[in-house]
Amino acid sequence: MRGRATIKDIARETGVSNVTISRVVNTPDQVAPETRARVEAAMARLGYVPNLAARAMRTRATRTIGCLVPDILSFSNAAVAQAAERALAAEGYGMMLVSAGERPEDEVRALDMLRLHRVDGLLVYIGSESDARMIEALRGLETPLLVLDRTLPIAADTVFSDHGPAMREAVAYLRALGHRRIVFLSTEAPIRPVVERKRAFAEATGDLGESARIIGVRGPDKAHFRAEALFSGSDAATAVIVDGSRLLRSVVDAVRVLGLSVPGDLSIIGLDVEDVAPTMTPEVTRITRDYGEIGRTAARLVLDRITEGAKGPKRSALLGSHVVLKGSCGPAEH
Question: Which of 14, 110, 167, 216 could be 200's S-S partner, Cβ–Cβ 3.0 to 4.6 Å?
Fold first, then answer.
């Protein structure tokens, strides 16, 4: 059985030196286009695969970007990671994706693992902005770092989403439909998106008093939360803004159990629910973001940092959110 092709095989096939072939693999811009094309054609024909580990030892570059997320089952996390991976692949980089859960000690271990693999850069979502261990671990990195939508006391490039304006627009829409008993069903995660959305909701409903409520659900409880109590009794909510697909499913289950109609009895707006909202009947009105743009921007900024080095000024991008009106909201019944 024939072994895998080597540089010597390519050299015999093309009549060029081993050094030139190595340059085609590692620094292709230093090789004449005709020669490079001939060598690359021979590599494809013979099935030559460069030894990335050996190249990493020579160049101190692995052409791999680490991506750390707290929950890969979260649609927004997965969509951003996928977009970043595609943008990185277009530039010749691979991605090593790690889903660490929401426990800080697991995130620190995952970060150590990515450092052990000598990734060239890091894209990081973290589950808590207040854990001292994770903040110190990030602060001690020498690897180019891009932080996604978190407010951290460290020097790093960042990509933020602007959550407030779309939340205020969603509340104004519900209020224009006559709703006063409005619930924002969210997680209790101590992270920027949750904080910004809660602040905007509170500002937009401040004059409604106790009619407008924020209900926080612990991360581990999201998949099992029972929402029926929110929509029954004399103070039942007539509208709900719900954060994430898992909590949206809880709301839909409650609607079914209580025999409610949407939007006749209850108006629903989802947040980051693009994976399920279009398949529901009626289709769910939602606050959404351009996850592709977030991922592509993160990839571009981390690659720019790799190219330019650590000394340049830190960069930050702020990308918008917007409301998509569909059929799940209607006038309040008084």
Answer: 167
